[in-house]
Amino acid sequence: MLVEIDLVKAIAKMKTQQLRSIQYLRGIAALSIVFFHAKEQFPGFQAIFPSNFSSAGVDIFFVISGFIMVFITDKGDRDVPKFMWNRIIRVVPLYWFYTLLTVFGYTIASGLFRDNALTFDHVILSMLFIPHYNPESMTILPFVKAGWTLDYEMFFYFVFAMSMLINDRHRIFLTCSFLVLLVTIGVYQFPWLPAELQFYGNDILLEFVAGMLLCRFYQTGNLQPVRFIQICLLVIGILTIIVQPPAEVLVWRSIKFGIPAVWLVAGMLSFERFMPELRLPLLLGNASYSIYLSHFMGIAILRYLYPRLGIPTAGLFSTLAFVSISLIVGSLCGIISHIWIEKPLLKFCRNLRK
């Protein structure tokens, strides 16, 4: 009983501060995406690292997003215009900055960017988070390809905000019901639906649902502080992300990566009370959005320079070296972007609202 009381007090206290476990996971998720993109740069790299488990960083982000939306609105952030403004200034300014930077980079060195095309419609639709076909690759990807996840994020924020407008008390139920309905429609893949609408029927939306439900479960104190259970949650989450079914077995992404991501987030949250303040992991977590958007620039430059400098692009050593350098460059780009671009933009937008 005393343990439960202490846990409830700890959770109440944490409502006024950052969740370190979530911030650390954000940093890990961002670096895993850097790793995923780095190993795709040369054919030989993919042969050495055939597993795509590192792409699960996206799924971890989605579970965290669902969790955080419930967490912050329970703290009182339920003014819908303010809620949407906070979401917009958190995502849009930096994304637009890197979209315009990519446009500039494409005009002076198009060779740095693969499977892309610079057209007015493509850029504008990308900046408005409207799913559309990339005119070069004919896939539904924005001009900054990593932005496909932001199309889902902004859509989720919009649905969550509309649910608060309809019925604030039942916002979680309404959001979950609508997203499940969309996925149900998407499962049948009606041929008469345009591809842009089918984009929002992807089962990856269920990861937002899982994150919201996990927050409710966490707030009840049911992630018991039993060390054995905590360790099991972490181990299960990590193993089920790394050990993937064979490629020929078709599995929904929300099952393949989403469920392991939920276990991993739950495991980290169960250790929240014992999380020390580690400066570098916390910095990487705070800079995770900048890392996500900026790392592709560093990787593109490395891919361009490697063969021109005569550096081998085959073999285990070359692969490990390239991936390691990419992780360092990606982290540095993200930290610099976070301090010198992201934070000033956020400050400016917050002052603008005032």
Features:
354 residues; mainly alpha; 15 helices; single chain
What report would you give on this structure?
The protein is mainly α and 354 residues long. It has helices at residues 2-14, 20-38, 43-48, 57-74, 80-108, 120-127, 148-166, 171-188, 195-199, 206-219, 227-242, 253-270, 279-286, 288-308, 316-353. The protein starts with a helix and ends with a helix. 36% of the residues are buried. Mean pLDDT is 85; it is low at 1-16.
How far the N terminus sits from the C terminus, by CA atoms, comes to 45 Å
Spell out the helices and strands N to C. Answer: HHHHHHHHHHHHHHH
Q: How many strands?
A: 0
- Structural class comes to mainly alpha
Name the beta content range.
Answer: under 5%
Largest beta-sheet details:
none
Poorly predicted regions are 1-16
Q: Count helical runs.
A: 15
Q: In which range does the helix fraction lie?
A: over 70%
Rg computed from alpha carbons, rounded to a whole number of angstroms: 21 Å
Q: What is the mean predicted local confidence, pLDDT?
A: 85
Shape: globular
Brief summary of the model shown:
This protein is mainly α. The chain is built from 15 helices and no strands. α2 (20-38) crosses α15 (316-353).
Topology:
Blueprint: H1 2-14, H2 20-38, H3 43-48, H4 57-74, H5 80-108, H6 120-127, H7 148-166, H8 171-188, H9 195-199, H10 206-219, H11 227-242, H12 253-270, H13 279-286, H14 288-308, H15 316-353
Helix pairs in contact: 2-4, 2-13, 2-14, 2-15, 4-7, 4-10, 4-12, 5-7, 5-14, 5-15, 7-8, 8-10, 10-12, 11-12, 14-15
